[in-house]
Write a structure and sequence with these properties.
200 residues; mainly alpha; two-stranded parallel ribbon; 7 helices
């Protein structure tokens, strides 16, 4: 595995208030996390103490962390892997979401590009799509009992200002080489109303 340069802790690409540990309390539990509070996997550990070293250390046990762990175990079964979680298993954003798995197709591109550059912004969005595809594949291959639905979704800007911002971000994403062949854009309000009559 090729060694990567460390990310500087003093980087100004991400606002400083984003650094630090998750809040120890004052966070909400989603409906599905409330129903599994007695499950032993929530605080599962394979060792009494955190190992002093490991070949691979993954921070976070959400959708991305578990996907990376599974990929690493499959690719390098001989490597030692540690997954670190601040609270309980999958208790971060993945466990608190509204029950949908919808990757960002382009909306975050401008923000990511400003913070990390064009190439990395494209990689971030590609990673979201790949993570979603891997999740769907895992559910289907392992007959996971869940309400998986795969289909088209809508992003609906509800003000002219929001529509203009969305159009600008989409145009920048496309010009940078972002994958757009699966995205339909309907900028005219009358045409958009035909696409989604329930929203008018």
């Amino acid at each position: 595995m090729e060694e990567q340069p460390p990310i500087p802790a003093s980087s100004t690409a991400i606002p400083q208030e984003r650094y630090g540990f998750p809040k120890p309390d004052g966070y909400s539990l989603s409906y599905w996390l409330q129903g599994v509070q007695g499950d032993p996997l929530l605080n599962h550990r394979t060792t009494p103490e955190v190992p002093p070293s490991a070949d691979i250390v993954i921070i976070g046990s959400g959708i991305t962390g578990t996907s990376v762990a599974r990929h690493c175990l499959t690719t390098w079964p001989e490597k030692s892997i540690v997954v670190l979680e601040a609270r309980e298993f999958c208790s971060g954003a993945t466990g608190r979401n509204a029950g949908h798995c919808k990757p960002d197709q382009f909306r975050g591109f401008k923000r990511y590009e400003t913070a990390f550059g064009t190439e990395q912004a494209l990689k971030i969005l590609q990673n979201e799509g790949q993570t979603w595809s891997d999740l769907v594949q895992y559910v289907r291959e392992n007959d996971v009992d869940c309400d998986l639905w795969v289909g088209n979704t809508l992003d609906v800007p509800v003000t002219p200002e929001a529509a203009e911002i969305a159009k600008d971000v989409y145009d920048r994403f496309k010009a940078a080489g972002g994958k757009t062949d699966h995205i339909e854009v309907t900028p005219e309000p009358a045409e958009a109303a035909k696409v989604s009559p329930r929203l008018t």
